């Protein structure tokens, strides 16, 4: 009989993959809203003027990195860039207003920064395009889990 922990460990790559898809979609939506005015538009309901610092560059990073994370292509690099951009947004835009994210409106920036940093370390999980191009059936996370399991059992 399998334990709950065993079942959860087996499902981990799929949970990480679904997590990556949702986070990538949400992040890409932020970028698309700011660049194209869709989904209610960017700050103030419009679009960010092309080339303006830092808003336009942040929106481009959000759209491109979000789409890459969504499909699982270059996930770790895209997540690292996204995490850094959100850390920059938090410390240079939000944090000078007040200390706590709840006070300075930086909850999303702080959360996205930590979420993307987590994806840097976990990898893309299941359903990633990276796995298709490499000809791998199992994701890095699955392979690493099997290696840990083999090490523990030895």
Task: Give a short summary of the structure.
With 154 residues, the chain is an all-alpha fold. It contains seven helices and no strands.
Outline:
elongated
Distance between the termini: 22 Å
Helix content: over 70%
**Average predicted local confidence, pLDDT:** 88
Work out the radius of gyration.
Answer: 18 Å
Write the element-wise H/E pattern from the N-terminal end onward.
HHHHHHH
Biggest sheet architecture:
none
Number of extended strands: 0
Low-confidence stretches: none
Description:
Helix content is 71%, strand content 0%. The protein has 154 residues and is an all-alpha fold. Helix 1 (4-36) packs across helix 5, helix 2 (55-71) runs antiparallel to helix 3 (75-94) and helix 3 (75-94) packs antiparallel against helix 5 (107-122). The longest helix has 33 residues, at 4-36. The relative contact order is 0.15.
């Amino acid at each position: 009989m399998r334990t709950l922990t065993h079942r959860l460990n087996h499902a981990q790559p799929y949970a990480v993959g679904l997590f990556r898809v949702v986070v990538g979609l949400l992040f890409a939506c932020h970028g698309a809203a700011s660049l194209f005015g869709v989904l209610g538009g960017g700050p103030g309901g419009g679009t960010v003027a092309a080339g303006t610092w830092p808003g336009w560059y942040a929106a481009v990073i959000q759209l491109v990195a979000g789409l890459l994370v969504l499909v699982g292509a270059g996930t770790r690099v895209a997540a690292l860039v996204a995490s850094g951009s959100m850390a920059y947004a938090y410390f240079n835009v939000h944090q000078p207003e007040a200390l706590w994210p709840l006070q300075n409106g930086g909850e999303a920036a702080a959360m996205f920064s930590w979420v993307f940093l987590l994806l840097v370390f976990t990898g893309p999980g299941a359903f990633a395009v990276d796995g298709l191009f490499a000809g791998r059936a199992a994701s890095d996370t699955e392979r690493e889990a099997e290696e840990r399991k083999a090490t523990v059992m030895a």
